[in-house]
Amino acid sequence: MFAAVVSDHWAVLSPRVERLNTTCEAAHFGLWRLCKKSIFMTAEDPEGKGCGPISLPGEYNISAAAIAVFSLAFMMLGTLCLLGSFGRGRDYLLRPAGMFFAFAGLCIIISVEVMRQSVKRMIESDETIWIEYYYSWSFACACSAFILLFLSGVGLLLISMPHMPRNPWETCMDAEPEPVD
């Protein structure tokens, strides 16, 4: 998730290249900035992605960054709770760790959706030159982080749940206390 948040390759935008031996302006952006690059097109792109590779720094553009920062904070808090739960008799910290990881996953998927909607609005706008786009490796890292964080959060919550009674007629109050190791 950290790699997804700090990088700026969430989406790559390019205009339609209709003629060779001209320049085209391509861009890539992430949560923090939009990078533009003018590329002189001398040959057709064999992958059909339009306007060539991009790797220059550019201007700042904050779109879903605040939500991603909350996600990083939740992830760090969950990690601290998880590390703290390894001490003897501190397994009660698994529940907040699971909640923090689940919240971090939800925040990063909200950030992904905000970014996706931003790209969609930018492409559909009449004032932009970019008509083609694809999501890049940072976007895939954020989606993977959502899956891992959310599933680990739910898993930790399930592990930290109290044990169910063994007999259907037994209530939690009637159950014999489990021995503490």
UniProtKB/TrEMBL annotation:
One of its GO terms (cellular component) is L-type voltage-gated calcium channel complex. Gene3D superfamilies: 1.20.140.150. It is a multi-pass membrane protein. The keyword Repeat does not apply. The chain crosses the membrane at residues 62-86, 93-114, 134-159. Keywords: Calcium, Calcium channel, Calcium transport, Cell membrane, Ion channel, Ion transport, Membrane, Transmembrane, Transmembrane helix, Transport, Voltage-gated channel. GO terms for molecular function: calcium channel activity; calcium channel regulator activity. It is found in: Cell membrane; Membrane. One of its GO terms (biological process) is regulation of calcium ion transmembrane transport via high voltage-gated calcium channel. The keyword Calcium applies. Belongs to the PMP-22/EMP/MP20 family. CACNG subfamily. This is Voltage-dependent calcium channel gamma-1 subunit-like. It comes from Scleropages formosus. The lineage of its organism: Eukaryota, Metazoa, Chordata, Craniata, Vertebrata.
